[in-house]
Amino acid sequence: MVVIFFIVLIVGFIDDNSFMHRFDRRSRMSQLRREIETYKAQYETADCCLREMDANPKAIEKMARERYFMKRPGEDVFVIIDSEDDVSETAPTDSSVR
User: Fold this and answer.
1) 3-state secondary structure of 87
2) Pure H helices in 1-98
3) Residue 52 contacts residue 61 (beta carbons within 8 Å)
4) For 51-80, how does the pLDDT look when each residue is reduced to its tens digit (9 = 90+)?
5) Cα(15)–Cα(4) distance, rounded to whole angstroms?
6) What is the C-alpha radius of gyration for the chain, rounded to an integer number of angstroms?
7) 74: phi > 0 → left, psi -120 to 50 → alpha, else beta; which?
């Protein structure tokens, strides 16, 4: 009975191929698969945006204006922010943009 107990203890908990290690590896693998799917979706979005910018020069200007608050000489840009939390994320660092 004692031998059987030690075998179950070794196979179930201590060994590198134990049930606990298998469970941990399986959960880690499912987490990594979810991350892969997330990164694939981000890649597809970025690839689509890149293709659009290659095909359409106006898309580059649109992205520069929306994301980086760039402007043409003589233009005024007004940035409207809903909450104080968004200020650090979206506020331009260039002092010429007001």
Assistant:
1) helix
2) 2-9, 19-55, 57-68, 87-90
3) no
4) 988 888 888 888 888 888 788 888 887 778
5) 15
6) 27
7) left
Question: How many CB atoms sit inside 10 A of residue 30's CB?
Answer: 10
Does the pLDDT of residue 93 top 70, yes or no? no
CA distance 37 to 60: 28
Q: What angle do CA 44, 52, 64 make, to 5 degrees?
A: 105
d(CA 95, CA 53): 28
User: Are 91 and 69 within 8 A, CB to CB?
Assistant: no
pTM of the model: 0.54
